[in-house]
Amino acid sequence: xxGRSGGQGITLRRLVALAVLAVVVAVAATLIVVRVxxxxxxxxxxxxxxxxxxxxxxxxxxxxxxxxAREFVLVRGERPPVRVSRVFDPTDSAKNVVVWTHxxxxxxxxxxxxxxxxxxRVQLITLNAQTGEVRRRPCPHCDExxxxxxxxxxxxxxxxxxxxxxxVRYDVGxxxxxxxxxxxxxxxxxxxxxxxxxxxxTHLLTGEYVMSGGEPGMELRLHELxxxxxxxxxxxxxxxxxxxxxxxxxATIDGQERIAVGVRQNPGECAASFPVVLLGPDGEVHGxxxxxxxxxxxxxxxxxxxxxxxxxxxxxxHLYATISSWTCDSSGDSEDDKMRPHRPSTLWRLDGxxxxxxxxxxxxxxxxxxxxxxxxxxxPDCIGPTDRADSVTYCNSGTLSRERHGKRTKIADKVLGLxxxxxxx
Length: 425
Prior knowledge:
This protein has helices at 12-36, 42-46, 335-338, 391-394, and strands at 63-67, 71-76, 82-85, 98-100, 106-110, 123-128, 134-138, 142-148, 152-159, 164-171, 180-182, 195-199, 203-210, 217-226, 230-236, 248-253, 256-262, 276-279, 285-287, 305-313, 319-328, 339-351, 354-357, 365-370, 373-378, 398-404, 407-415, 417-419. It is mainly β. Strands 3-2-1-28 form a 4-stranded antiparallel sheet. The longest helix is centred in the N-terminal third of the chain and has 25 residues, at 12-36. It starts with 11 loop residues before the first helix and ends in a 6-residue tail after the last strand.
């Protein structure tokens, strides 16, 4: 079960945040350039060495990962965490993608070279969740990742010579594998779309924002994968009224591909809808009933709004989401000024076709590790205006906690993202 988190639309607040990020990247440039040009980073190896872990050993205890502004952290039970230095973008989650292989043994991410305008030096970073070993291999111009097979990932990269987006498949368990190009299917116009929304063992979900041929929106395709470098049939879906930040959850349950996407309508506006739809393997689109999550007086595209922050399939084979909502006060001058918080981001579960509340405590991202343990990331919603001097940090990072049998224990502050092995492994 691996997909894409909802990300964040671009608002005035986030444009300011992007300027701050540029300063952060410039300050860290000297250190990062050393890492992305092939030097062996000491912090990758120091915590990774674990002589007690054998090659065939399954992960012990709690296994999950989180990101901060300056590092990626892999947690493996009581063993020392593995820390990898990398700058993460606090305002754009699309630049912070972390994926787990479907067997749960590897976690992968791209290096931050693109933030330094050095996209030709991007590396694919992989970490072994059992041993903590960190590997790096060249992945020039790569900017998208999704897991396929048992322990493979697919990266999308732009090729200047071909003037096209290429899909390259890597076996992350094989350090000698430098990638196999996957040819696009003939029934997908012989091209790859430029966004990866998620992948199962046998299928890849891609997307692209299209402005021609009607109302602008997102066009999605589901590609069947054949072997290491082949593709089968391609399923196309109707164009969605959404920007590119679509939270996505994909999984294989009872031998069937289960796909859910959030459709971000009117991003940045107070009157904002965010339906969650289920996609069938043959192009079907099924809606879900969000009425219990909507704010009072909600009228689509007129007043009131909701946001789906994250979307995932749980170990119980239910679809989960975190959703916040607000009402609109027309006296506000800007769209932000009109927003009045109604409910913070909380946990919801899809029962049949209806969304039902699971709890009232604030939750932005949640991942269940076992029957009694769930990791919780809580980030302030920042619905409406804020005059905080530290709004870049405050509105884009939060507290990571471990919840055991209803009791939460704080693990870390200023956390940007949370991930864990897929539930359908």
